[in-house]
């Protein structure tokens, strides 16, 4: 049996016990100190009176008596007479010589006895008076009147004082003066009782006051602690459980699921473009939106489900008993449905959307931490690819064990120059059928897994900083290839897709300028591509780099156009020369797969680009029907499997010839597309072709074939 931890006593009880002990100690200390001081004062008074007695003896007893050790009867009578004024407090008196012999004792004519040697020595040798209290019988008789003498044989509180007997500067003996201390003792005891009573009363009152104060504050602290504990588990804005409470409930749900074999689902979601809403409408309305989202989410759940706010615009929904992944996905769709109706933000009705990630236990994870991480991966997959709802997939998880192994292989591959390759895919002018350039795509010749496309390793490189090394490799390799083609007589341009991680720094422009100068390649033969999503993410940092590239003479293209949020004013002002329509729109134009709105959208993009003097390129063209439709819509150039896959530089000409020869005739009724001539290799390149190639080869460290799951990926 596991021992239970000992509970700490309540603060009030703890204070009561500790303070009582402290008060008792303080009371005893005060009483003891006061008693000691009062007793010392009483003894000091006794010493003072004894010294007064000793001074009166000088006239009655000359110094010779001490030297000879003898007292005559006359001297004895004189001593008794001089002491009468000290009765009745003076109880006894003995005079001692420096040798410790009794010189005078009123109780005996032949005095005998022994002194307190320590006190006698202190008086005679050191000249120090000492006093000590005692209880004794009054057996000493002084030569004083009987009426003034204390009752014989009575028990008295006395104080015995040894004082030095001094004549001039010479100490000749000591006087032992015994004084009645009864009255002083009684006064002292009464004073001690009074002081003790006052001390105890004061301490008790102080304790009661402090106890009341502590109990009041303890009660407040307990209330505050309970409130803080409650607030620590709730979001202050929406009142929903927060991340901490979600984690606690998730841990319990996982433990319960392991015991009864049920499943646990977790949905993570955020509000799309919430930052834009905050920036444009203000944070107050953003908070109102979050509160309304919270209320709608609570209303959409099953009994037993939990909705929590994790921070910002991110929410979580815990499904503690979900039979399957499909059931969790359906619940996610239901949650997504609460965003259909507009949100009322006072004078504004706002339509917002959400991206939801779904992960389940045991299908995707075995513990709470892993389940949260994988739901987060799924949410960002849904957000990045506008899927609305995305179920966790290992393919999208950059932190899966397989990806980590691949990352280690990538580090080693960058140290081996023969593993990283560049393949090239032609771009064709749709109006003439001429090949006007190529796009170079990176490949990894993995020693055990074969040739890998960039969609498998570029995300890893972007996350770890290796993208800079890969970008440099792509630029160097592509520009070297352009130089070879140019030296062989073909001035073929090349375009390089840059990662968002590189295009925010002017270093990449400096590198390009340096490489062009090193290999003697004109800037007009190089084009760079950036994705629209990268441009929208950080326009203030990217545009200066594009301006610098334009100043160098390098052309710029926007890749994957149509899936970002570029405004018309942004497009008008950007230093770009080309738009590449995202392959999603191209696929929608394919026979039997088209959607009614795809062609008008493509037409609108083409007209917009042409109005700004931009060339339009369609990628992912795989059949004649699509090519003909694109030509009708005014698209300028195309690339895809219809013309050639990406192949090594030395195989570009052969691959192009085979594809043109083997391509089936266009279906009846479609616009013919003029076959594109062969792209020259480094061995042979007609000069005429160089003149007919106004745009270039595209070499990229960030592949154009990275697409969301479910969308076509450019073949390797």
UniProtKB/TrEMBL annotation:
Protein name (Swiss-Prot/TrEMBL): GGDEF-domain containing protein
Transmembrane regions listed in the UniProt entry: 195-214
InterPro entries xrefs: Biofilm_reg_signaling, EAL_dom, EAL_sf, GGDEF_dom, Nucleotide_cyclase, Rev_trsase/Diguanyl_cyclase
Keyword field contains Transmembrane helix: yes
PANTHER family tied to this protein: BIOFILM ARCHITECTURE MAINTENANCE PROTEIN MBAA (PTHR44757:SF2), DIGUANYLATE CYCLASE DGCP (PTHR44757)
Alphabetically ordered keywords of this record: Membrane, Transmembrane, Transmembrane helix
Organism encoding this protein: Cellulomonas aerilata
Domain GGDEF as annotated: residue spans: 262-394
Signal peptide: none
Domain EAL stretches: 403-660
Pfam families (alphabetical): EAL (PF00563), GGDEF (PF00990)
